[in-house]
Each structure stands twice: as structure tokens, then as C-alpha cells.
Specification:
four-stranded antiparallel beta sheet; Outer membrane efflux proteins (OEP); 429 residues; alpha+beta
């Protein structure tokens, strides 16, 4: 007799059997190097890198070319010994080139450059964070799919167990040992198990599509995964996890870079109180037949000092100091948040490990219980209810066992992420 409810499962095994199994390491390399979030973060990093170049431009001469045509209502004249000779043409063309170089501005330019560098550093850390977040999302999706595959296997085994019981109940009914009610109950349980199997297969398909999305593949591509045998967090204590997080957490490193950048902004604003020394030179040509030299070179050394700006400089300094104080207070808040995240992930990991220990013997016990109840039923000393309860118990225990295992794997990845560990290199060892 054909079993159409098992056909998708059998076909999938046949097709994927010859396919290349994707390892966690291979997947992590794809999502961290070519993932969408990584590309977005790198674009933001490129903007910050451009800001560094923009700040550096003040170290180099500013070169301008200019040209203009002048039309006057009156031709310029001068009074000289009762005469009014012309001194310039009425209409004339002027053009030239000028270069200006800042010689010294009391550190204003270098403070601006350093502030931009620290902002770039913050963006680089944000890129690392985005890569690591993508890695965590992939790891969770990877374990989610492995879990869904195991749950689908359990559901398929349930179909087989309920079908076997249905046959036993039918045989005993034909022999006149049991009533029609037991056969009907077996039919209902069998039909429900088929629905549960289809639901489990749909969940597996959905999680496979989620994984393909992270890998930038077509959503319906077939995915075959390998189990992960490493345990990167083995033996770590909560104190060690905290110490690692405070040194490596991207949130703390980003706020540190922003504090340094804001400190340089304060220095930049303060430098506006000081003069800036410059050197300017260039060439200008003016079409003027009344001048001996229509073209002329010039060199100017000068100083600019802002005597009054309407309080703008004071406001800039005050604003920068306020932002700096806010960042320092935020850093303390972030440290507490990071420690809480680490502790939460650590407790989840410990809880998951304890659940695995609890489930180790439960599966074997549930399997033995089902074997005994099936044997008792065939011998006529057990009831159908006892067999069905044993099947349900075994299914529940097996499902919970797989859930506990992959909850541990996900919690481990979450702890490593909270600690600031690079997941791609950690799982790639």
C-alpha cells in the first residue's frame, strides 16, 4: 500500500542524499562576507572614511581660479593738478588663480582629523557588529532547521507507530477480541499523526527558506546540513564571560570611540578662540590699458582672528561638552546592559544543559515503555489507551529532547555573541 503522506519526506531524502551538505563554517563565511547587513554596514563605513579625507583636506592648499567681467557706468578718473585723467577702462576682464595655505591654527585641523578617525573606528566596529549579528542570525537559523528536521523525523515515526497500532487494533477486531471503538480511535490517532507530520514538514520548509534567504539563495533551494560537533563555550565561567565582554563587546568599543571623537570636537571648538596663520599667493591679470603691468604675481602672509561671533564658539563648546558627558554616562549604562545580556545568555545555557541531562534517560525509558505496552496489547493483557498514551509519551519525550539539544546550541551562540566573540572565526576552527 502506498503512503502519500510519507512521499515528500522520502523524496527529500533521495534528492538531498547526493547533494553537498552545507557546513556551519561554510554558511558563516557566506553571510559574513556577502550578506546584506554586512554590505550596508560597509557602505556606512565608506562614508566615515570619506569624512576623514574631507577633514585632511584642510592640511593642503586651497586653490581657486576665478574670472569676471566688469561693466562700469562711469570710466574711473582721478583728480590730479586740476586734471582728471582716466585710471581704468570702463569695461574690463579680470581673471587669475590663488592658493591659500593654513600654516598654523592651534590644533583645530588636527583635532577635526582625529575626531573623524575615531568616528571611522566606531563605524568599523559597527561593521564587525553587523557581521557578527548576521553570523548569530545564521547560526540560529541553522540550528532551527536542524531542529525542524529532527521534529519532522519524530512526526514521521509517530505516523508509523500509529499505523502499526491501527493494524493491531484491526486484527484484534477481526478476531472479535476488541470493539469497533478501538479501531475508530486508532484511525483518528493515525489521521492526526499524518496532519502533525505535514505541519512539521511545512515548518522545516519554512526554516529552510529562512536559511536560503540569509545565504542569498532562491528560497526553494534544497538545503542539507551537517551536525555541529564543537562546543566553543565549554568550561567558561560567568566571571570569565563578563571579563571577555567588557574587553571585546562592540557596544562598549563603539561608545569608547565616540567619546574620544567628541573630546576632539571640544578641542576643535576651543581652537576657534585662537588665531590662524595663513600664506596666500597667486596671479591676477586685468585688461587695463592704463596700468603698466596688467598681470601681477602676489604673496600674502596673514593672520585671522575671530574677535566676536555672537557667542557661537561658546555654544559649540557647551554643546560638545554636554554631548561628551552624555556619552560617558551612556557608557556606564551600556556596561550594565552588556553584563545583563551575558548573564541572561549564560543562565539560558546552563538551563539548557540541565534539560539535556534530564532528557538523556527519558527517551530510553519511553521507548521501553512503548515496547512493553505494545507487547501487552498483543498478548491481550493491555489496553489500547495504554499503547496510545505510550506513543504520545515517546513522541513528547523525543521532541523535547531535540528541542533541549538545539536550545543549548542556540544559547551557546547567544552567549558567545553577548561576550563579543567573533562567531565566524570561533565556529570556523
Amino acid at each position: 500500500m502506498k503512503r502519500p503522506y510519507l512521499l515528500p519526506f522520502v523524496c527529500l531524502l533521495f534528492v538531498t542524499g547526493a547533494a553537498h551538505a552545507l557546513t556551519l563554517e561554510e554558511g558563516l563565511k557566506i553571510v559574513t562576507e556577502t550578506g546584506r547587513d554586512t554590505k550596508i554596514a560597509r557602505s556606512d563605513e565608506a562614508v566615515a572614511r570619506g569624512n576623514v579625507s574631507l577633514s585632511r583636506s584642510a592640511l593642503y592648499p586651497q586653490v581657486d581660479a576665478y574670472g569676471n567681467q566688469t561693466w562700469l557706468q562711469y570710466q574711473p578718473q582721478a583728480k590730479f593738478s586740476g586734471q582728471t585723467p582716466f585710471t581704468s577702462d570702463k569695461d574690463f576682464l579680470t581673471y587669475g588663480i590663488k592658493a591659500t595655505q593654513i600654516l598654523y591654527d592651534f590644533g583645530k585641523t588636527y583635532s577635526s582629523i582625529d575626531a573623524a578617525k575615531y568616528q571611522l573606528k566606531a563605524k568599523e566596529i559597527e561593521t564587525e557588529k553587523a557581521r557578527n549579528r548576521s553570523a548569530l542570525d545564521f547560526i540560529i537559523a541553522y540550528y532551527d532547521l536542524l531542529e525542524a528536521e529532527k521534529l519532522a523525523q519524530v512526526a514521521g515515526q509517530d505516523v508509523q507507530r500509529y499505523e502499526a497500532h491501527k493494524k493491531d487494533a484491526g486484527s484484534r477486531f477481526s478476531a472479535g477480541v476488541v470493539t469497533k471503538n478501538e479501531v475508530l480511535e486508532a484511525d483518528v490517532k493515525f489521521a492526526n499523526s499524518r496532519q502533525d507530520y505535514l505541519t512539521a514538514e511545512n515548518l522545516k520548509s519554512l526554516r529552510a527558506s529562512r536559511l536560503n534567504s540569509l545565504l542569498l539563495r532562491p528560497l526553494n533551494d534544497i538545503v542539507q546540513l551537517e551536525e555541529v560537533k564543537t562546543s566553543p563555550s565549554a568550561g567558561i565561567t560567568l566571571e570569565e564571560a563578563w571579563a571577555t565582554a567588557e574587553a571585546a563587546s562592540p557596544e562598549i568599543r563603539v561608545i569608547d570611540a565616540e567619546i574620544l571623537s567628541k573630546g576632539e570636537n571640544v578641542n576643535t571648538a576651543r581652537a576657534e578662540y585662537m588665531p590662524s596663520f595663513f600664506l596666500s599667493g597667486g596671479y591676477q591679470y586685468q585688461e587695463n590699458q592704463y596700468q603698466v603691468h596688467q598681470g601681477n604675481w602676489s604673496v600674502i602672509a596673514g593672520v585671522n582672528i575671530n574677535l566676536w561671533s555672537g557667542g557661537a564658539t561658546d555654544s559649540k563648546i557647551g554643546m560638545s561638552k554636554g554631548e561628551l558627558l552624555s556619552l560617558k554616562l551612556t557608557r556606564d549604562k551600556i556596561i550594565d546592559a552588556v553584563r545583563l545580556d551575558v548573564k541572561s545568555a549564560y543562565l539560558d545555557l546552563q538551563s539548557s544543559a540541565q534539560k539535556i541531562d534530564v532528557m538523556k534517560t527519558s527517551v530510553a525509558q519511553a521507548e521501553e515503555n512503548l515496547r512493553l505496552q505494545q507487547l501487552r496489547y498483543k498478548e491481550g493483557v493491555g489496553t489500547a489507551i495504554e499503547v496510545l498514551d505510550a506513543v504520545t509519551l515517546l513522541s513528547t519525550v523525543q521532541s523535547n529532547s531535540w528541542r533541549a539539544l538545539y536550545a543549548f546550541e542556540r544559547a551557546e551562540a547567544g552567549l558567545l555573541y553577548a561576550m563579543g566573540r567573533d562567531l565566524a572565526s570561533t565556529y570556523g576552527k
